[in-house]
C-alpha cells in the first residue's frame, strides 16, 4: 500500500459513529476471526464442514451467543454491538455469522422472549456458554415464504403433545442439542393455531439428517428436521406467544444481524480486491492505477459506506425501541443485494484468481446467494416495504 492509501472505514469516518464499548467488541471479534477462523475457513468451506462443537465453546467464551439478550448468562449488549459482531463474523464467512445468529437470534431469542422460567433456566445459560447448540425449525420442504401453510402438527394426547412433520434447510440441526419447533395445533384442543415447542434433540422420534452437496454456506452445517410421533410434555410448549407473531419476531431478530453481516462480507471482498489490484501488474503498472479499476472501487466503496450508515441507523433505532419490521426489511434488502453485487464485481478485478479459495471473494459470493434468499427473499422484503408505503397487502 502507498502512504496515501486510506481504508474504507477511514474514508467514511465510521469510527466516529461508534462508542468505545462498541469499538472494543468489534475489535475483539475481528481479532478472534483473524487468529482462529480465517486460517481455516477456506478449508472448512472446501470440505463442507465446520468443527461446530469446538467453535461453540470458543464462541461462548467470546460471549457472542445471545449477546444482545438480558440475563441467564447473556452479555446484555446493545443491538449495535451485536450488529458489529455480526459484521466482523461475516467478514470471515457468512456461515460463521449464521452459526451465531441461529443460536442467539432465533433459538435463544425464542426461549428468552416466549419461554417459561424453567425453559430459560434449563437452556439459556448452557447455550450462552456454547455447551448446548440450538436450532430453529420453521421452514418446511413445501413452505418457505409462506409459513402459514406449514403441515407440521402438534396433537394432544392426555397431558402430552405429539409432533409429526418435517422442517427443511435448518442451520445447526444435525449438531443441535435443542430445537425450537413451530407446529400447528388443533383449535379445539385449547391452543390457538401455531405454537412453539422446545424439543431436546435426543427425544425419540426426532432426527436431523444433514443436507450435503451445497455450493453455498459450506462452512455451515445444514439439515432437515424429521418428527415422527415425537412425544413432549405440556411444559415443552412456549407459553408466551400464540400464532405466527412468535416465529416472525424471531426472524426479524435474525434479519437485523444480516443487515450488518452482509456489509462485513462486502467490505472483505472490496478490501481484498483493492489489495490485489495494488500488486497485480497489467501492461507494466499495477491494476489499481487504471481508471476503470478506480471507478469500480469508488462505486463499490460508496455502497459499502451507505450500507454501513443504514445499518448503524437501524441499530440506533433498535436500541431506542423504535424499529419496525419493514425498516429491518429495508436494511436486509439493500445491504444483501449490494453485497452480492460487490462480491461479483470484485471477482472480475481478481480475474481467474477470483474463482479460487486462495482468495475469499468467490466464497463470499457463493454464500451471499443463500443470504439473499434466507430470512425472507428479496421479493418478500420488497412486498413488506411496498405494503408499508401503499397500505396494500400484495403477498397473494
TrEMBL record:
Residues 243-389 form the Acyl-CoA dehydrogenase/oxidase C-terminal domain. PANTHER family: GLUTARYL-COA DEHYDROGENASE, MITOCHONDRIAL. It comes from the Bacteria. GO terms for molecular function: fatty-acyl-CoA binding; flavin adenine dinucleotide binding; glutaryl-CoA dehydrogenase activity. GO terms for biological process: fatty acid beta-oxidation using acyl-CoA dehydrogenase; fatty-acyl-CoA biosynthetic process. The keyword Flavoprotein applies. Residues 20-131 form the Acyl-CoA dehydrogenase/oxidase N-terminal domain. Keywords: FAD, Flavoprotein, Oxidoreductase, Transit peptide. Its cofactor is FAD. Belongs to the acyl-CoA dehydrogenase family. InterPro entries: Acyl-CoA_Oxase/DH_mid-dom, Acyl-CoA_Oxase/DH_mid-dom_sf, AcylCo_DH-like_C, AcylCo_DH/oxidase_C, AcylCoA_DH/ox_N, AcylCoA_DH/ox_N_sf, AcylCoA_DH/oxidase_NM_dom_sf, Glutaryl-CoA_DH_mitochondrial. Residues 135-230 form the Acyl-CoA oxidase/dehydrogenase middle domain. This is Glutaryl-CoA dehydrogenase. Pfam families: Acyl-CoA_dh_1 (PF00441), Acyl-CoA_dh_M (PF02770), Acyl-CoA_dh_N (PF02771). It catalyses: a 2,3-saturated acyl-CoA + A = a 2,3-dehydroacyl-CoA + AH2.
Amino acid at each position: 500500500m502507498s502512504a496515501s492509501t486510506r481504508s474504507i472505514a477511514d474514508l467514511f469516518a465510521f469510527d466516529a459513529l461508534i462508542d468505545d464499548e462498541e469499538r472494543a467488541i468489534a475489535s475483539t471479534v475481528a481479532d478472534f476471526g483473524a487468529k482462529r477462523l480465517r486460517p481455516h475457513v477456506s478449508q472448512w468451506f472446501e470440505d463442507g464442514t465446520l468443527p461446530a462443537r469446538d467453535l461453540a465453546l470458543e464462541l461462548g467464551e467470546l460471549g457472542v451467543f445471545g449477546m444482545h439478550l438480558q440475563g441467564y448468562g447473556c452479555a446484555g449488549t446493545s443491538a449495535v454491538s451485536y450488529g458489529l459482531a455480526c459484521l466482523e463474523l461475516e467478514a470471515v464467512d457468512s456461515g460463521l455469522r449464521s452459526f451465531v445468529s441461529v443460536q442467539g437470534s432465533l433459538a435463544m431469542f425464542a426461549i428468552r422472549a416466549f419461554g417459561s422460567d424453567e425453559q430459560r433456566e434449563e437452556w439459556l445459560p448452557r447455550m450462552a456458554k456454547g455447551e448446548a447448540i440450538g436450532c430453529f425449525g420453521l421452514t418446511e420442504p413445501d413452505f418457505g415464504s409462506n409459513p402459514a401453510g406449514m403441515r407440521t402438527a402438534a396433537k394432544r394426547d392426555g397431558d402430552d403433545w405429539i409432533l409429526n412433520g418435517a422442517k427443511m434447510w435448518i442451520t445447526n440441526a444435525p449438531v443441535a442439542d435443542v430445537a425450537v419447533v413451530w407446529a400447528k395445533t388443533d383449535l379445539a384442543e385449547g391452543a390457538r393455531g401455531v405454537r412453539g415447542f422446545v424439543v431436546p434433540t435426543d427425544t425419540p422420534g426426532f432426527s436431523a439428517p444433514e443436507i450435503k452437496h451445497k455450493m453455498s454456506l459450506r462452512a455451515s452445517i445444514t439439515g432437515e428436521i424429521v418428527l415422527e410421533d415425537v412425544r413432549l410434555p405440556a411444559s415443552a410448549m412456549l407459553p408466551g406467544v400464540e400464532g405466527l407473531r412468535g416465529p416472525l419476531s424471531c426472524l426479524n431478530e435474525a434479519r437485523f444481524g444480516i443487515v450488518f453481516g452482509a456489509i462485513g462480507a462486502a467490505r472483505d471482498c472490496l478490501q481484498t480486491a483493492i489489495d490485489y489490484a495494488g500488486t497485480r501488474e497489467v501492461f507494466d503498472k499495477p491494476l489499481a492505477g487504471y481508471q476503470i479499476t478506480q471507478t469500480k472501487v469508488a462505486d463499490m466503496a460508496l455502497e459499502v459506506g451507505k450500507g454501513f450508515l443504514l445499518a448503524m441507523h437501524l441499530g440506533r433505532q433498535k436500541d431506542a425501541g423504535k424499529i419496525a419490521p419493514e425498516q429491518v426489511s429495508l436494511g436486509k434488502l439493500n445491504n444483501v443485494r449490494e453485497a452480492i453485487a460487490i462480491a461479483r464485481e470484485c471477482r472480475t478485478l481478481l480475474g481467474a484468481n477470483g474463482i479460487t479459495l486462495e482468495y475469499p471473494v468467490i466464497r463470499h459470493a457463493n454464500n451471499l446467494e443463500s443470504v439473499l434468499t434466507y430470512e425472507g427473499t428479496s421479493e418478500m422484503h420488497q412486498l413488506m416495504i411496498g405494503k408499508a408505503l401503499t397500505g396494500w397487502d400484495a403477498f397473494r
